[in-house]
Design brief:
Elements: E1 15-18, E2 23-28, E3 35-40, E4 43-49, H1 59-71, E5 79-83, H2 89-97, E6 102-106, H3 110-119, E7 128-130, H4 134-140, E8 146-151, H5 166-175, E9 176-188, H6 193-207, E10 215-220, H7 222-225, E11 231-238, H8 244-252, E12 259-262, H9 264-270
Parallel strand pairs: 5-6, 5-8, 6-7, 8-9
Antiparallel strand pairs: 1-2, 2-3, 3-4, 9-11, 10-11, 10-12
Length: about 300
């Protein structure tokens, strides 16, 4: 039986639960009274501090937040779609920083969602949570109904093939308003075959919807971009010019600075990679043994 009366205090113990797609563990952070790490099959998925939703432990989540803040300055409420829920770190942040936002979270693992809601109470008002396949839900979503689409879907430690194709990205962009922002969390290592293909895929999807081809950039640690290690890379895109200068400043000021790759640098990184279609899509490469394992 699990014991987690108020999600806080010195008596917290890890909570382990079988979910629809694996074994989830919620591990208390001994340094922060009401903070928890969510892992699924040993891979870190989310970190949530119930007392401070703006505390973002994972570097890639901070980079997504920087992209959102640069694109939508101030506390403007957003209509946000989150494909992939986990412990809902970003929806909690947006609810905290942008009151009045309307958020939809699509998470295929219903038992994981139930565990998160039970142990880590959701903000009020809570986002609308849909237990659904992210690709199918996106296909049924209304055109021009969102300011923000965040794609952070992992099956285990890899991005599912269905979330990597130009058909999917085109559909996700369709859901956005003209000034909307598309953000995707990717992961790869040199020689970046998957990452390059995703850059080409998003570029092709944008070209089909934006008269001038839209705009996109990539946020990642220099060590990852230099091929020294496997890691996350955040791809941001929209039909309109992105606030690259502001985003570069935010990423450079982080405790773990990231580079913002844009324009000719992004074209060089993409190289001759071809867009991925549903017919030839494959999942992202798995991380090296032990790259992210916890507990």
């Amino acid at each position: 039986m699990d014991h987690h009366e108020d999600s806080g205090g010195p008596g917290r113990v890890p909570v382990t639960r079988e979910t629809d797609f694996g074994t989830a563990r919620l591990l208390p952070d001994i340094d922060r009274d009401r903070a928890w790490l969510l892992t699924v099959d040993g891979a870190p998925q989310s970190y949530v501090d119930l007392d401070d939703p703006a505390h973002l432990e994972f570097e890639y989540v901070r980079r997504i937040a920087y992209a959102v803040d640069a694109a939508f300055p101030g506390a403007r409420p957003l209509d946000a779609v989150h494909l992939g829920g986990g412990a809902m770190t970003l929806p909690r942040l947006i609810a905290h920083d942008r009151p009045g936002s309307r958020q939809q979270v699509v998470e295929a693992d219903g038992r994981l969602t139930a565990l998160v809601a039970e142990v880590l109470p959701l903000p009020d008002p809570a986002p609308a949570v849909h237990t659904a396949d992210a690709r199918a839900w996106t296909a049924a979503a209304g055109t021009g109904t969102a300011d923000l689409v965040v794609v952070d879907v992992f099956g285990g430690s890899t991005v599912p093939a269905a979330m990597t194709s130009v058909e999917f990205v085109r559909d996700a962009l369709r859901v956005l308003r003209p000034d909307g922002l598309y953000v995707a969390n990717l992961a790869d290592a040199a020689p970046f075959a998957f990452l390059r293909s995703q850059l080409a895929t998003v570029r092709a999807a944008l070209a089909a919807q934006a008269p001038d081809g839209g705009d996109m950039c990539l946020l990642a640690e220099p060590a990852v971009l230099r091929g020294r290690r496997y890691g996350n890379a955040v791809l941001a895109a929209g039909r309109h010019p992105l606030p690259v200068a502001g985003l570069t400043r935010l990423c450079a000021a982080d405790a773990f600075p990231a580079r913002v790759v844009h324009g000719p640098g992004l074209a060089r990184l993409t190289g001759a990679a071809a867009p991925v279609t549903d017919a030839d899509a494959s999942p992202s490469p798995p991380p090296p043994e032990g790259a992210f394992t916890v507990g």
